Amino acid sequence: MNDYLIKYKIATVAELVTPFELEGYQFTSYHKDWWECDAWVASKVIKAKSAGEARFEFMKNLIPQVEKCSVVSECAFRFVANSYVIYKQTNNPEKIIYIYFVRNVGHTGLMFQEEQVAQLSKLSAIPNQQAFMYIMEASNATTFYTRLTMLIGAVEAFAGEITKGKMVVTNQVEIKKILGGALYDKLYEYGKGLRHKLLHGNVQAHHLFDGLTDEIYGKILDYLRATYDIQIPEGVVHPQRNFYDNFVQTSMFMKFVDQELLDLKEIEEIIDDRIKSRVKESDIFTYCGESPKDY
Question: Strands (DSSP E) along the chain, which ranges?
């Protein structure tokens, strides 16, 4: 077992005035001028066999703490798309550190041309027009579960409602037609369906939801193409683009030249400078190239 120090940036509009500890995590402001800061840093030493195992344990137990902070602060916290470092504190004579660097970039749009204009009249002929609002809201969403909820709403809006006896219910047959049998069961199976867990307040195993937004969105487009001849191009990279939270990322192993530098803000500035001009790198780090063994 080794000791791994992990420092993780958390974007938020909550301004952290005083550092605090919660469930073994140290929370500090990303910058000493907390009133001008839009992020925190969560730090903890994790005992694990590898950096990957340490990261998993760190993230798994950090998520509930961040959720609590969001409730009492009444502010947004962005848990994904943040920079972090993992520093092996034992059996690491070369002083190697793993750096995951994320940078916010501007949005890139998609062209709206004659081909798109030609589809508008076809969309106007679709019976359940309210589904379009859910698709647009999914495009505007900045978090995974918000987008997922809106896409499920779009599917159910397209499916519409039917009358069973004295009850009006969602048309499950049409939902299954849109999603296909396997995805339908994954979302709607009695007692296990992820749609029910999401909307009934029982999300626990986050990994079960991986990839669902892209899969559902793809099924919606397939349904529109096959049922209403809506010509939306296939293979678009990052569809449902929006104004917010557009990022690029890189990761690398670096060696400290001399003294260890573990201030996450300074590390981010050095890596950003390395990408742009490589001016600061030689003072603090040297690049490892290949991933070290047994890190």
Answer: 2-12, 20-22, 25-29, 39-48, 77-78, 84-88, 96-105, 161-164, 167-170, 246-256, 285-287
